UniProtKB/TrEMBL annotation:
It comes from Eucalyptus grandis. Belongs to the eIF-5A family. GO terms for molecular function: ribosome binding; RNA binding; translation elongation factor activity; translation initiation factor activity. This is Eukaryotic translation initiation factor 5A. Residues 85-154 form the Translation initiation factor 5A C-terminal domain. It comes from the Eukaryota. The keyword Ribosomal protein does not apply.
Length: 159
């Protein structure tokens, strides 16, 4: 036996993938797909007939779920596409810091301080106005592929 101590530095996550494969022909409108390494919500799907080389092709039009940009991709319907794992989590708003970060209360009672105010002006205004009025606000954060952003707001009454 050796008397040395071993220290392992872990720089990885739990090994869970950010995406999972799904056959292109089974992806429908309002589903999710990865286009150009960005998680997108599918807004339009069209399928072409099999051509001379035998593959029907799916034409996907998606909107990036974080920045709203429109992206397109064409994939043979029998091939696999990456589909992002998308989760939505509700947090209660505690405070808004000077540098634009939110202090949020999680389900288990701990605080989360690493989410920025949203870039969407309408949502940003609603959050700031509601907080200034002293309302009890719950924000919904969407998380996918290592990114997290606030996408919705609920007013649960005055404090």
């Amino acid at each position: 036996m050796s008397d040395e101590e071993h220290h392992f530095e872990s720089k990885a996550d739990a090994g869970a993938s950010k995406t999972y494969p799904q056959q292109a022909g089974t992806i429908r409108k309002n589903g999710y797909i990865v286009i150009k390494n960005r998680p997108c919500k599918v807004v339009e799907v069209s399928t072409s007939k099999t051509g001379k080389h035998g593959h029907a092709k799916c034409h996907f039009v998606g909107i990036d779920i974080f920045n709203g940009k429109k992206l397109e991709d064409i994939v043979p319907s029998s091939h696999n596409c990456d589909v992002p794992h998308v989760t939505r989590t509700d947090y209660q708003l505690i405070d808004i810091s000077e540098d634009g970060f939110l202090s949020l209360l999680t389900e288990n009672g701990s605080t989360k301080d690493d989410l920025r105010l949203p870039t969407d002006d309408a949502l940003l205004g609603q959050i700031k106005d509601g907080f200034a009025e002293g309302k009890d606000l719950v924000v919904t954060a969407m998380c996918s592929m290592g990114e997290e952003q606030i996408c919705a707001l609920k007013d649960i009454g005055p404090k």
